[in-house]
Design goal:
By secondary structure, the protein is α+β, with helices and mostly antiparallel strands. The chain contains 5 helices and 5 strands.
Length: 159
């Protein structure tokens, strides 16, 4: 079993300058944030054949599905697709703060999931790679109206 531990963050200044529409037009973005002593934990393990489902996913909901396309959680679905993982999997999450808390939990979730899935594949991804790929999945692919600061705070930690 692989378990990732990804920090949440508090942002002090510069929110909005990490939006593509801002930094493309102004040629910069500047954000001050820090990770905090609260985390999102993600566990990944190969699903045993005793379970009939291809994917068993536990987060604020529980999903048991046989096909990647049937996964309702868009971040889980797209991270699995992005890394081309087709193994039978159990993925579980636990968090120190609820979704919507303003602490960057969705980005920490995406960074932590990518990190755990890379390790599941036997690969190590750098913090920069995790931040860029998580931002790509959420901002570009899923078209979520958000910037990149949370992905970097989650991937690198610290201030």
């Amino acid at each position: 079993m692989i378990i990732s531990k990804t920090p949440l963050r508090v942002s002090f200044a510069g929110g909005g300058t990490d939006l593509r529409s801002f930094y493309k037009n102004n040629r910069y973005g500047a954000v001050l944030s820090t990770s905090i002593d609260s985390y999102i934990y993600i566990s990944v393990k190969k699903q045993r054949s005793l379970f009939s489902d291809e994917y068993r996913l536990n987060y604020s909901e529980t999903e048991r599905v046989d096909d990647l396309e049937k996964i309702k959680n868009p971040v889980m679905r797209e991270c699995l697709r992005f890394l081309e993982i087709d193994d039978r999997l159990y993925i579980g999450t636990t968090a120190d703060a609820p979704a919507g808390s303003g602490l960057g939990s969705s980005s920490s979730f995406c960074v932590g999931l990518l990190n755990a899935l890379y390790k599941f594949k036997g690969q190590v991804a750098s913090a920069g790679r995790l931040a860029e790929e998580a931002a790509y999945i959420e901002c570009d692919y899923l078209k979520r109206p958000m910037g990149k600061q949370d992905h970097y705070a989650a991937a690198y930690g610290g201030i």
